[in-house]
Structure formats: structure tokens, C-alpha cells
Amino acid sequence: MIDPADSLTQPLSVTIPVPLRVVIDMQQQVIEASLVQDLLGDWFLTQKITGKSTSGKLLAQSRQRSTLVNNQDEGVLMLDALVKQHEKAGGKLRSNLAGTPPAP
Predict the structure, then answer these.
(1) CA distances from 72 to 1, 14, 37, 54, 88 (A)
(2) Out of the domains of life, which is the source (predicted)?
């Protein structure tokens, strides 16, 4: 709670810092994935895939899909699996939650 007199506001359930947004740079596309909670408390893993031109510039068209996950922990595991899958395919993690480059 921010204000001790406030009995309605609850503390956030996040107890450890976890990357809730990542950007993965692939050879022919860029994948942005984020884990967000909506106003009803449901968690969604959203992936936006944007293609690249032969010169490496991002194309105007992209596609997006959202997947409902059971809870934050499951979403974090799915986000981690997505990163590992694309890194195995040659992708490079370009930024994490804060938009900063990942640690080497």
C-alpha cells in the first residue's frame, strides 16, 4: 500500500524482477513479446512479428497474436521458452523489460 490509511489498494504480487517484455532480432523479422495483465486480472502473452526488407529495415506490416495464460508464472515460463527457441534459431535478444541491451 502506498498510504497506510488506504485499505483498498493491494500490493503488487510481483516479488522478483522478471523480464516481462523482450525484443528478439531474427534475420528476416523482429519479434516483440510482452506479458501483460489486463484490468480483470487475466495474463496475456502478446507477440508482435514484424518482417524486415532485404536491407534490414522494418516493414510497415506486422502480425500480432495474444495468448491467455493461467498466471504470471506460466507466462514468464512461456516468454523464456520463446526466447530460447528463437535464440536456438539464430535470433539475438536485443532488449529486455527496460528496453536496455541484455547482459552479456
Answers:
(1) 21, 9, 8, 37, 24
(2) Bacteria
